[in-house]
């Protein structure tokens, strides 16, 4: 399925948010993957924005990160709302 620009932007910001939360939690990709029952490459693909995680995968990732899906989606919505034009480099959104 081809994603439109708005959806692609949302996925990029989501990828950045997940990576930021993992790094803030002091977890490696391997630790997050093990805790969430996913592979390390899958975590890498999710954080690069090249793979859109399922709701179930997001729920497991959020659980390992110690937050809720609402917190993650709220942060993504806030980031998108604060930037009329999201600055991106490759698939990663620049965090301020």
Q: Which spans of ≥5 residues are poorly predicted at pLDDT below 50?
A: 87-94
Count of folded domains: 1
Overall outline: globular
Structural class of the secondary elements?
Answer: mainly alpha
Number of strands: 2
Strand order of the largest sheet: 1-2
The description of the largest β-sheet is:
2 strands, antiparallel
CATH class: Mainly Alpha
Report the helical percentage.
55-70%
DSSP helical segment count = 5
Distance between the termini: 31 Å
Could you characterize the architecture of this molecule?
By secondary structure, this protein is mainly alpha-helical. The protein has five helices and two strands; from the N terminus they run αααααββ. It has helices at residues 5-24, 29-36, 40-48, 55-65, 69-82, and strands at residues 88-89, 92-93. The chain has a two-stranded antiparallel ribbon. The longest helix has 20 residues, at 5-24. The chain starts with a helix and ends with a strand. Residues 87-94 have low confidence and may be disordered.
Topology of this protein?
Layout: H1 5-24, H2 29-36, H3 40-48, H4 55-65, H5 69-82, E1 88-89, E2 92-93
Please sum up the structure shown:
This protein is mainly alpha-helical and 96 residues long. The chain is built from 5 helices and 2 strands.
């Amino acid at each position: 399925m081809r994603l439109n620009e708005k959806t692609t932007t949302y996925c990029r910001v989501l990828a950045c948010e997940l990576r930021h939360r993992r790094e803030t939690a002091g977890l490696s990709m391997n630790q997050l993957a093990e805790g969430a029952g996913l592979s390390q490459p899958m975590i890498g693909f999710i954080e690069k924005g090249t793979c859109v995680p399922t709701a179930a995968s997001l729920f497991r990732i959020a659980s390992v990160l110690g937050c809720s899906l609402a917190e993650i989606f709220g942060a993504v919505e806030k980031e998108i709302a604060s930037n009329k034009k999201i600055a991106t480099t490759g698939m990663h959104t620049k965090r301020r």
